[in-house]
Amino acid sequence: MIKKILVAIDGSEASKHAMDFAIDLAKQTFAEFQLLTVVPPVLLPPLGLIKVKSKAIKELQCELETIYCKILAKSLDEVQKRGTQLKVSTSLEKGEPHKKILQTAKLGNFDLIIIGSRGLSSRFTALGSVSSRVIDEALCPVTVTRWRN
Fold first, then answer.
1. Engineered SS bond to 6: which of 27, 110, 138, 147, CB 3.0-4.6 Å?
2. What span, in angstroms and rounded, lies between the C-alpha atoms of 111 and 141?
3. How many structural domains compose the chain?
């Protein structure tokens, strides 16, 4: 029985479809669910480290955190518009997305992870690297929602 659902979101269309699927499933099963977004680390090519000061990197990381906080708030608002009876929580983590998704699922004893087939980081592959890694390493079932533009 599905009682706890973890929904990974990143603001992409694929993650919006994953969230829609989770909302419908939670309504049918009376499950609680958590919206999780992960702020990825700022990665620069080796030469970029020479030219970019650490202050600029910190500012960029702060900007990313602000963007992901807005994504999370907008998603929560959408959930609340679609069903007031839904029990939903949110979480914002920092780090490698697949690792944080897996860690959150394990520590929270989630019954199911729902994730989009490809998010913001992988627009040109059929199945993104984050969703592939989550599928390969998750200790619970994973539902991958497919979205085509």
1. 110
2. 7
3. 1
The tokens for 37 are 């977004």
Q: What angle do CA 142, 146, 149 make, to 5 degrees?
A: 155
Q: Counting every residue, how long is the chain? A: 149
Q: Structure tokens of 144?
A: 């991958």
C-alpha 120/C-alpha 9 separation (Å) is 10
Q: Domain range spanning residue 38?
A: 4-145
The pLDDT assigned to 120 comes to 52
Sign of CA pseudo-dihedral 99, 108, 94, 24: positive
Predicted local confidence at residue 124, as pLDDT? 42
Q: Which residues contact 29 (CB under 8 A, 6 or more apart)?
A: 1, 2, 3
What CATH number is given to the structural domain containing 68? Answer: 3.40.50.620
Which residue bears the tokens 């085509």? 148
CB neighbourhood size of 78 (10 A)? 14
C-alpha–C-alpha distance, residues 110 and 95, integer Å:
20
- Partners of residue 114 on adjacent β-strands: 7, 143
Token duo for residue 86: 């839904």
Predicted pLDDT of residue 50: 56
| Two structure tokens written together for 128 | 């993104």
Straight-line distance from the first to the last Cα atom of the chain, in angstroms, rounded to the nearest whole number: 33
